[in-house]
Amino acid sequence: MTECRRGYWCECWTEPTATDGQAGPQLRASFDAYSAPQADRWVAVALRTISPALNTHASGEAWEWLYEGRVRTRRALLQMQPCTVSVTHADTRITWTIRPVLFLPLAHRQAAELPACAHDFKTRQTD
C-alpha cells in the first residue's frame, strides 16, 4: 500500500459522571475501520454485548441507538462526519467515538535498508 486510505478511527472511553476525585476519561478500546458499516457495526456489537448488564435506563439508551440512531450515524459517517454514541450506566458514562481519518501507509522494512541514523541508537537496560 503506497497511498493514503480513507477510513474511520473508533474509540471507546469510560468516564465517571461524579467528579469526586476519581480518574478522568479512560480509553478502553480502539479500532480502525475501513468503511462506515464496519465502524458502526463495531459500536453495535459492543452495545448488544453489554446491554444485558446495563441498568434499565442505559439499556434503553443502547437499544434506542441500535433501532433509531444507527441509521443517522451511518448517514453521517458516509458524509465523513464524526459521530458519538453514549450511554450512562450507574455513575459511568461509556462513549464510543467514530472519526473519519486518512490512514497513512507505513514503510515496509523487509526489503529496505534502514537509514544510517537507525544504528546510532543503542538498547538500554531498565531495572
Structure notes:
With 127 residues, the protein is α+β, with helices and mostly antiparallel strands. Helix content is 30%, strand content 31%. It has two helices and four strands. The protein has helices spanning 36-50, 56-78, and strands spanning 5-16, 26-33, 83-89, 92-103. The protein has a four-stranded antiparallel beta sheet. A hairpin with a 2-residue loop joins strand 3 and strand 4 (92-103). Helix 1 packs antiparallel against helix 2 (56-78). It is flat, with a radius of gyration of 20 Å.
Describe the structure concisely.
This protein is α+β, with helices and mostly antiparallel strands and 127 residues long. The protein is 30% helix and 31% strand. It has two helices and four strands.
Spell out the blueprint of helices and strands:
Elements: E1 5-16, E2 26-33, H1 36-50, H2 56-78, E3 83-89, E4 92-103
Antiparallel strand pairs: 1-2, 1-4, 3-4
Helix pairs in contact: 1-2
Spell out the key features of this protein.
127 residues; flat; alpha+beta
Question: What is the total tally of β strands?
Answer: 4
Quick one: biggest sheet?
Answer: 4 strands, antiparallel
Q: Please report which band the strand proportion falls in: under 5%, 5-15%, 15-25%, 25-35%, 35-45% or over 45%.
A: 25-35%
Rg for CA atoms: 20 Å
Q: What coarse outline follows from CA principal-axis ratios?
A: flat
Helical residue percent band: 25-40%
Across the major sheet, the strand order is: 2-1-4-3
H/E topology pattern: EEHHEE
Helical stretch tally: 2
Average residue pLDDT? 87
List the uncertain runs. Answer: none
N- and C-termini, Cα separation: 39 Å
Main structural class = alpha+beta
